[in-house]
């Protein structure tokens, strides 16, 4: 849902020069804010560095003009692999040490970019006096397929490339953000959808320990991480789709046009949505070393990084997918396949929790819940044993979304998080809800910014506990409920996600 809002017009260029560990970067004024864009945090992953862990940036001399966003990662419509850049936005001046918020964009690990104006961050910076960072990372088959089985002594391949990129970006923040007025000891990572999966996965990744102090996960598909045998099969299927014999895999992987990676990856993702519903080929791999343990298992055992966490989902996550991004188990055929590996009693109990099934809306709600809500509940209840955890449900939906049958669907909370009031926000509320959108924006930003500064949401939002399951229901009038949809939550007990 990004990429639809216009950026503010740039004002006069100002000498916003700072020094990083690779040299100096010169930014510019964006209205009243200081912006640095397209800063490389790792070497371009091209040539011999394709499908390798991120390498350090080569230092440069002089001042690098950081005026323009870096290229998106290779995806449909974009084929530039030189994508490992980030952006910094702050109020001018570097006095004091401000909280830092690092945003990881969503897009099913196959699309998206930090340059989307949806993720601009201006409202958060102005309201909260924070330093805002947004990052690009490798996507799709170039970032989230595991080709390690095709490594040779001359040409090795690494696993978890997108995840490694995110760690490298956070390491850059630790080394450099003080130059931009940020506090490296007060970094909050936050993300939505696949970006929220990145957040929950980073919370269980050893290499990310100490790189952030707090985390916010908006609609995370926490279960989306897979063991090596499944990941290896997907990479073989990818090469089969591309028409490449396995004996020629290493050479092709090193030399193929990135557009060929994107094309074969798109086919693989579409095929998987029908053949293995409930799984996603583009996801982290539990490789035993960089990601030693499945995130759900880490949270269940209380072994995630002990940082405060805000986690939540939207009331009708799944309803947008059948219309605009048909990748979830949101119809009876896919849902039957999804349940084929579990006890029949679990399937019957779960389906019974969705009145009106197999109707379109009930099926979409089921698919959205099993992807986002149910694993988020498991994550939250486990993490309470090691750190303060805060649960929310986003219920706000302006009248237009209700008329369309979408309700508070996937990603709609981003309008409140980023405080957007542009053309699309006006259209969204054309039939009513403008005052409500202002209210939920105030609620969400107040809590997110208070959390980033102090490690707790603003007053009125209690900690989550497995006994009471306190949840902030965010609407034009927000409220706290204990165990909302508790019967539905219990209906999912015993369901095992494919790994």
TrEMBL record:
Keywords (A to Z) from UniProt: Hydrolase
Gene Ontology terms for molecular function: hydrolase activity
Keyword Hydrolase carried by entry: yes
Enzyme Commission number(s) of this protein: 3.1.1.-
Highest taxon, organism lineage: Bacteria
Stretches that traverse the bilayer: none
InterPro entries: AB_hydrolase_fold, CarbesteraseB, Carboxylesterase_B_AS, Type-B_Carboxylest/Lipase
Keyword Hydrolase appears in the UniProt entry: yes
Domain Carboxylesterase type B, chain residue ranges per copy: 16-488
Family affiliation: Belongs to the type-B carboxylesterase/lipase family.
PANTHER family reported for this sequence: CARBOXYLESTERASE
Protein name: Carboxylic ester hydrolase
Lineage, highest ranks first: Bacteria, Bacillati, Actinomycetota, Actinomycetes, Mycobacteriales
């Amino acid at each position: 849902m990004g990429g639809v809002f216009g950026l503010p017009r740039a004002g006069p260029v100002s000498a916003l020069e700072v020094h990083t560990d690779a040299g100096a970067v010169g930014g510019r004024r964006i209205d009243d804010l200081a912006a640095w864009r397209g800063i490389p945090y790792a070497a371009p992953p091209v040539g011999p560095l394709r499908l390798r862990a991120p390498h350090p940036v080569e230092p440069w001399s002089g001042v690098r003009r950081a005026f323009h966003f870096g290229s998106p990662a290779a995806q449909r419509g974009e084929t530039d692999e030189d994508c490992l850049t980030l952006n910094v936005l702050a109020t001018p001046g570097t006095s004091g040490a401000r909280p830092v918020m690092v945003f990881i964009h969503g897009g099913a690990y196959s699309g998206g970019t930090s340059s989307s104006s949806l993720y601009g961050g201006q409202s958060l910076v102005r309201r909260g006096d924070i330093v805002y960072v947004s990052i690009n990372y490798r996507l799709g088959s170039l970032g989230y397929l595991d080709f390690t089985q095709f490594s040779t002594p001359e040409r090795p391949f690494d696993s978890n490339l997108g995840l490694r990129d995110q760690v490298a970006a956070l390491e850059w923040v630790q080394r450099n953000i003080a130059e931009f007025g940020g506090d490296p000891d007060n970094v909050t990572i936050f993300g939505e959808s696949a970006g929220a999966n990145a957040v929950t996965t980073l919370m269980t990744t050893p290499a990310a320990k100490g790189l952030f102090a707090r985390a916010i996960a908006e609609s995370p598909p926490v279960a989306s991480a897979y063991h090596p045998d499944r990941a290896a099969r997907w990479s073989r299927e990818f090469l089969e789709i591309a028409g490449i014999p396995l004996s020629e895999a290493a050479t092709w992987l090193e030399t193929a046009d990135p557009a060929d990676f994107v094309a074969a990856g798109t086919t693989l993702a579409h095929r998987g949505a029908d053949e293995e519903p409930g799984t996603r080929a583009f996801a982290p791999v539990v490789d035993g070393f960089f990601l030693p343990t499945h995130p759900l298992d880490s949270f269940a055992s209380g072994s995630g990084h002990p940082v405060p966490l805000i986690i939540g989902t939207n009331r009708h996550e799944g309803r947008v997918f059948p219309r605009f991004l048909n990748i979830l188990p949101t119809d009876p055929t896919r849902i039957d396949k999804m349940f084929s590996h579990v006890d029949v009693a679990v399937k019957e109990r779960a389906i019974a929790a969705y009145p009106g099934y197999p109707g379109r809306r009930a099926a979409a709600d089921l698919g959205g819940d099993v992807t986002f809500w149910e694993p988020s509940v498991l994550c939250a209840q486990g993490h309470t044993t090691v750190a303060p955890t805060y649960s929310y449900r986003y219920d706000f939906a302006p009248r237009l979304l209700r008329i369309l049958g979408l309700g508070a669907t996937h990603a709609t909370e981003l309008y409140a998080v980023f405080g957007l009031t542009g053309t699309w926000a006006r259209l969204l509320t054309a039939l009513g809800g403008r005052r409500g959108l202002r209210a939920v924006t105030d609620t969400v930003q107040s809590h997110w910014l208070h959390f980033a500064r102090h490690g707790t949401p603003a007053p009125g939002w209690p900690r989550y506990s497995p006994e009471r399951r306190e949840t902030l229901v965010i609407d034009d009038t927000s409220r706290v409920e204990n165990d909302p949809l508790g019967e539905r939550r219990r209906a999912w007990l015993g369901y095992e996600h494919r790994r």
